[in-house]
Automatic annotation (TrEMBL):
Protein name per UniProt: Homoserine O-acetyltransferase
Residues spanning the signal sequence: none
Organism: Halogranum salarium B-1
Subcellular localization, as worded in the UniProt entry: Cytoplasm
Function as written in the Swiss-Prot or TrEMBL entry: Transfers an acetyl group from acetyl-CoA to L-homoserine, forming acetyl-L-homoserine.
Amino acid sequence: MPVETDADVAELGEFRFECGESIENLEIAYEAYGEFTGDNAVLVCHALTGSQNVASHRTQGTAGQARAWWSDIVGPGKAIDTTEYYVVCANVPGSCYGSSGPASDAPDGEPYGTRFPPVSIGDWTRAQRALLDHLGVGRLHAVVGGSVGGMNALDWAVRYPDDVQRVVAVAAAARLDPQCLALDGIARRAITTDPNWNGGDYYDAAEKPKDGLALARQIGHVMYLSKASMDQKFGRRAAGRDMVRDTFPSDPAADFFPYRDVESYLDYQAEKFVDRFDANSYLYLTRAMDDFDLSEGYESDAAALAAFEGEALLMSFTGDWHFTTAQSESVAEAFRADDVPVAHHVVDSDHGHDAFLVEPENVGPPLRDFFHDGVRGRAVTDTVDDEEDGEPEFAPVHTSLFSG
C-alpha cells in the first residue's frame, strides 16, 4: 500500500538562532503522513544528511539515505503505522532539501553561503516546535530519531519536556567523543581546503568543491561501518580494472598496485553524494552535531532530563563504534536517576552505525511495541533486566575502528 504524503514548505517568519543572529523568514520543508486526531502525532528526526523524505521519494534531488530512508519503518501497517499515527518529518535548518540553509537565497537574492547563521541542534528542535505549532499540533505522542536525529529527540526531552509523551533515541549519544570530533574536523578541512570552496562562495561557479565534499563523505562513511562489516563486505579483494573510477587523481605508481573493492565502493558513494548534497551544509550540520552536549547549562545529564515525565527508549547496536552501546547506557542511567521509565534495548549487530537504517527487522518490533505500551512493550528489552553482578551483559565495541 503506498504511503499518503502531505509535502510542503512552511514559512515560519523571523527566527532567531541560538548564536544570536536572525533571518527574516525561516522556511522548513516537511512531509506529513496520516491524519491528525489530536493525540497521535509523531515527530521523526532525520540523520545528518537525511531529509524530510522519511517514507517517500517526493523531493527532487534526494537519493540514497535521503530518499525514503526509513520506509521499512514508517508506513501503513509498519512499526510507525501511518494509518494510526500522524507522522511529521522536517528538514532541519542548515540542510539543503528545502529548508533555509547556506544554499538558500538571502534577502539580497544571492545564496547565503557562509553568511547563514551558525545552527545548533537546539535550533533544529525550536524550528520543529514552530512547525508543529504551524500545523496545529500540540503535545506529541512520540519523538524518534536515529544518529544525530536521536540527539535531536533527546533535546526535545530537555527543551519541551511537557510536549512529548515518549522519546526514542536510536544509535545516538549525549555527546560525541573526541575520536568522532577529530574525524568530523578532518572532514571539514577536506572541504575548506578544496580550492573550489572559495570561502563558501561557489554557488554560481562552474566548479563546485566536489573533491573536498567527496573526501568528507568517505570519512563519514567509514565511520558508519564496523570492522566486521567491512571485512565481510570487502576483505582485501581487488576491484576489476573496469571498476577503476576517476573520482580522484592518482600517482603513477598506483598502476602497479590493486585498486581495491573498498576503494571502489567509497568512490562510488562519494560520487553519488556530491550530486545531492551541499558542501556548506555539510560544514554547518557536522558542527551542530559536534557542539551538542545534553548537559549543557546543567550539572549533569540527569539534571538536564529532570523535568521530563514521559517514557524513554534507547536503542543501540553492538557493532556501532560511532555511537556505542556504552554511550546509550549512560543516557539510560541518566533517565533512571530521574525515575523516568526507560529501556535500553541493545541489538547484537555487525553492521555498525548504519544498522538503524538497514536492520528494520530488529528496529521495528521494539519501536512498535514501545509506541503502544511504553517500556512494558513485549518486544522491548532493557539492560537492567539482564544485569549480573551489577554489570550489563552487552559487550560494547572498542571505540576505535583502527585498533587491532
